[in-house]
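Hello forum,

I keep getting stuck at the same step: I have a sequence, I want structure tokens, and every attempt I make locally crashes halfway through. Rather than fight my setup again tonight, could one of you with a working pipeline run this one for me? It's a single chain of 241 residues.
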Amino acid sequence: MSERPSRGISQTRLVYERLRTAIVGGRLLPGSKLNIAALAEEIEVSAGAVREGLAMLEAEALVVSEPARGYRVSPVSAVELLHLVKARIEIEKLCLAEAIRHGDLDWEGGIVSAFHRLSRVAERDPERPSQLSAEWAQSHGEFHRALVAGCPNQWLLRMHQILYQQSERYRQLSAPLSMTERDVKGEHQALVDAVLHRDIESAQALIAEHLDNTAQLLLNCPHLALSPADDASGKVAVSPA
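Reply #2:
Ran it on my machine without issues. Output:
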């Protein structure tokens, strides 16, 4: 994180984007302390820009501030994951229904294109098979955004994006030990078919099943297993990959 901010991007935005990527990608683990002075030196920005960037991340629940203790990466927990998935299922169902009702041919084309790209990208990093491919993670996000892009309700879409980002954080943290047999491509294909057939009921049932399948994998992953020390607080111990 040593390159200077380019013209046209503010220091605050640079801090926000760098840290968000590191947190969602699992490179900054839950509970990690975020030292403002050290970050300012590393990213080569002002301490004020770091504070503002951290405030933006706190608004998205990616970091937490503690009186007299500064900022830390937000913790994770099994309970929070279950609540997150429940909220995401309901929001995605609403977004899909609105997209199916209002989406046009360009929206349909966007779905087909996003699915085609996702289907051609390897899910795992060839050099580190236990890790998700960065290209796959990006394509996967684009696919889920394409499914709901026809929704005209911008508030629903904003909530969809926030919940997806939080879910991706859990996925990245759990990826090294979640290599199980699952036909993810088949689940995506079924979603595409239902949406393009404008079948709201089927699309909603499929997205709920798809997200629940992912949640169960994450909950069963040792990275998110409750340790005796964590059990009382409900926080989950996340080991480095």
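Residues 1-8, 226-241 have pLDDT under 50 and may be disordered. If your local run keeps crashing, start a new thread with the error log.
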